[in-house]
Structure formats: structure tokens, C-alpha cells
Design goal:
Layout: H1 11-44, H2 50-81, H3 84-107, H4 113-141, H5 147-173, H6 179-196, H7 211-224, H8 226-242, H9 248-255, H10 259-283, H11 290-310, H12 314-341, H13 348-400, H14 402-406
Helix pairs in contact: 1-2, 1-4, 1-5, 1-6, 2-4, 2-13, 3-4, 3-6, 4-13, 5-10, 5-12, 8-12, 8-13, 9-10, 10-12, 11-12, 11-13
Length: about 425
């Protein structure tokens, strides 16, 4: 493999990498502190019980998901029709405004549940536009043969930022409620600057059909390509049922009793496992039996979730979260590479938006599901049961979508439409 074509030797790819690192560092810290402050305000200012406050964390996830759901079709279309650099920069600007508002509100003592929920919804709206455009830029700036390695290095950016962001967010929160948000303001400003420094990208012309027809075209493409449908829906249902992150404040404050800094470490632990896997994949990308490896990774994710839910030891809980993050990183790497390489560039924004919707649904609706389960079973029962359900879903998907088990390599499998003969 020639160093001349190594992704990190490509200037614009380095800027994409930097943008991802900075924005994820900021927003992962922001999300951790939003959840922590929601839980604390519910418990202290409103006198809610542990179960009631845990349920409210699920509702916070729902508040982020609703705008994501409503705006996903528009976000995918804009990623295919507009300059993807400007879409990412504008949406990141919304997150910058959110961080600034929260920094000022905490400084003046004006934080309330209504403000936290409103800004969580605004963050969901911003994120829906960032994901499809940022993901679709990578195949535009690196050669196709380097895409698996580029995605692996992008995973390192995401996961290392997801280690630094939550840990730093918890550390700063313990020293002042405004500090995590001021950190977010600086990081997001630098991320916008890096994105706007990327050179203009020449892309295929998107058909000049009505917007609704173009949106429907992207949805039909995923629906008819069973391989893509299996990849997207596996993450949706497995992580929706197996998500544990929404319950971390409940575990930090009322199960393991480790406080703000412990919460930051718990949020960072999955990303540590994922970052280690990302480094390994960047050095030696997977090339064979990628489908079965993706399925087994989700099974390990479910087992680690069960172990975390049942653990009463903080070190053991961190170990479970680390394994959980490592397994999820393998699954995400394989799935993202398959989706990008199995989608034509003129549809990449729309397909990425559908994939992003599935990821958001699995995360935010998973938080809502976890909150409801926690209200009935408590946080321990909710997390353990969810991990077991993720294993069951993976077994079902291996039967329903044999294409996933049969995927040996990352080679594109989508079928190009037949072209009309020239007359």
C-alpha cells in the first residue's frame, strides 16, 4: 500500500478528520453534561425519585430524536444537492450557539428543565444535518481503495474525541457548570474553521427532480437493496434494545456512587475500547468475512451490556463499558464501510441520512426505551434485559438477512440501474 495514497497524506482528509475530532469532542461533552444536569435538576430542584429521574433521561433522548426524525429526509437531500462543507459548517454553528447559551445560562443560574430539553432538541436538529454531509465527504476526498482505512482513521477521530469529551466534560462540570460549555464553544469554532478550509468538491450531478421524488428515491434504494437494509436495521434494533448510556447518570449517582468525575469516566470507557479498535483497524483493516464479524461483534456488545448492568464494582463496570465500546466499533466500522462502498455518490447523502436516522433512533429511542424499562425494573434490570435483547435481535437478523452472513469482503454489491439506450 503506497504511502503516497495514505489517507493522512491527503490535505482535505486531514481537515475532515480534524473537524470530526473537534466537533465530537465538544458535542459528546455537551451531551454528557446535559444528561447530568437534567438528572441533578430533576432530583434536587423537583424532588424526583431515582426511577423518575431515570425516566426523564429517556425523555431527554426522545427530545433529541423527534427533530432528527422530522428533518432526516431534508438533511439527506441537502447533502446531495448543496456543498457538503457549508452544510456541516452551518449545522455546527447551531451547536456552537447551543453551547454558548448553556454557558451563559449556567453562569447566571438560569438553568431549568425546560431550557435543557429545548436545547437538547436543537442539538438533535443540528446533528441530523452534520452526519450525512460529513460522512459523504470522506469518499469524495480519498481514493476508493483507501476508503476502509480512511473510515478506520475517522473512527479514531470520533472515538478518541468521545474519550476526551465526556471525561473532560465530567472533570470540568465538577469544577464549574459553565466550563464544559465554554470548552465546547472553542472546539466547535475551530471545527467550523477546519471544515471551511476544505477545497471545493466536484460531485456527480443530482437529477433535477422534485425534492419529494428525490427523497423517495433514496428510501427506495435502501429498501430494495436488502444488503443495505440489513446493515441499517441491525444497528437500529440491536442498539435500541441494548443501549446503556442513557442510564449512566443513574449508575454514577445512585448505583455505583462515583459522582460527576465517575460519570465522565463511564461515558469515556466505551470510547476508549472503540479508540483502541480504531487504531487496530487503521493499521490492519478487516478484509475477509466482514459480515459474520459484524454479527459476532453485536453479540459481544450485548454480552458486555449485560455484564455492565449486573456489575456492582466500578472497575468491573468500566471494563464492561470498554468491551462494549470495542465491539460496537467493529460493528460500526464494517457497517459504515459497507454502506459507503455500496452506495452511488449521487445518493450517498440520502442513504447516509437514512443510516443516521437508524443510528439516532437506536440511541435516542433506545434512551427512551431504557427510561421506560428503568421506571418498571430499575436501571440495573433495564440495562441487563436490553443487552440480552440485543443478542436475540442479532440471531434473528442473521436468519432474516442471510446476505449479512454471506458478505465476505467490502466489494460493492449494489446494482447500477440500466441506462436508457441512446436513440
Amino acid at each position: 500500500m503506497s504511502d503516497a495514497t495514505h489517507p493522512l497524506r491527503i490535505r482535505d482528509y486531514r481537515l475532515v478528520w480534524l473537524t470530526r475530532f473537534l466537533s465530537v469532542s465538544a458535542t459528546s461533552a455537551l451531551v454528557v453534561v446535559l444528561g447530568a444536569q437534567t438528572y441533578q435538576v430533576a432530583r434536587t430542584a423537583h424532588g424526583m425519585s431515582t426511577a423518575e429521574a431515570a425516566f426523564l433521561l429517556g425523555v431527554l433522548g426522545l427530545a433529541q430524536f423527534i427533530p432528527f426524525l422530522l428533518l432526516t429526509p431534508v438533511a439527506g437531500l441537502l447533502a446531495d444537492k448543496l456543498d457538503r462543507r457549508f452544510v456541516v459548517a452551518a449545522a455546527t454553528g447551531i451547536d456552537l450557539a447551543i453551547a454558548l447559551i448553556l454557558a451563559l445560562a449556567n453562569g447566571s443560574g438560569a438553568v431549568s428543565l425546560s431550557l435543557l430539553f429545548a436545547l437538547a432538541a436543537a442539538h438533535g436538529a443540528a446533528r441530523v444535518f452534520i452526519g450525512p454531509s460529513l460522512s459523504a465527504i470522506v469518499p469524495n476526498v480519498v481514493p476508493a481503495e483507501q476508503l476502509p482505512r480512511a473510515i478506520a482513521f475517522s473512527s479514531i477521530a470520533w472515538q478518541s474525541a468521545a474519550v476526551i469529551g465526556p471525561a473532560l466534560g465530567g472533570f470540568l462540570l465538577a469544577r464549574g457548570p459553565s466550563l464544559p460549555y465554554w470548552f465546547g464553544c472553542v472546539a466547535l469554532t475551530l471545527g467550523i474553521t477546519a471544515m471551511l478550509a476544505i477545497r471545493p468538491i466536484t460531485r456527480p450531478e443530482v437529477a433535477k427532480d422534485p425534492p419529494l421524488k428525490l427523497i423517495a428515491e433514496g428510501a427506495r434504494f435502501v429498501w430494495h437493496e436488502r444488503f443495505l437494509l440489513g446493515c441499517v436495521s441491525l444497528d437500529l434494533f440491536a442498539v435500541l434494545l441494548g443501549g446503556a448510556t442513557a442510564m449512566l447518570p443513574a449508575f454514577a449517582y445512585d448505583v455505583l456512587h462515583v459522582g460527576d468525575e465517575g460519570l465522565g469516566l463511564m461515558r469515556a470507557a466505551p470510547a476508549i475500547g472503540a479508540a483502541l479498535v480504531g487504531i487496530w483497524l487503521a493499521i490492519s483493516p478487516l478484509r475477509s468475512r466482514v459480515g459474520p464479524k459484524m454479527l459476532w461483534a453485536v453479540v459481544v456488545y450485548g454480552l458486555a451490556t449485560v455484564a455492565f448492568g449486573l456489575s456492582k464494582s466500578f472497575p468491573l463496570s468500566l471494563a464492561g463499558l470498554t468491551v462494549l465500546g470495542a465491539a460496537d466499533a467493529i460493528s460500526v466500522f464494517i457497517r459504515n464501510t459497507l454502506i459507503q462502498l455500496n452506495t452511488p455518490d449521487d445518493k450517498r447523502g440520502r442513504v447516509s441520512s437514512i443510516s443516521g436516522l437508524a443510528i439516532s433512533a437506536s440511541n435516542e429511542l433506545g434512551e427512551m426505551q431504557s427510561g421506560l424499562a428503568a421506571a418498571l425494573l430499575g436501571p440495573i434490570g433495564a440495562v441487563a434485559l436490553g443487552g440480552a435483547a440485543a443478542i436475540v435481535v442479532t440471531a434473528l437478523w442473521s436468519v432474516i438477512f442471510p446476505e449479512l452472513r454471506g458478505a465476505k469482503t467490502f466489494a460493492p454489491q449494489y446494482r447500477e440501474p440500466l441506462k436508457e439506450p441512446v436513440t
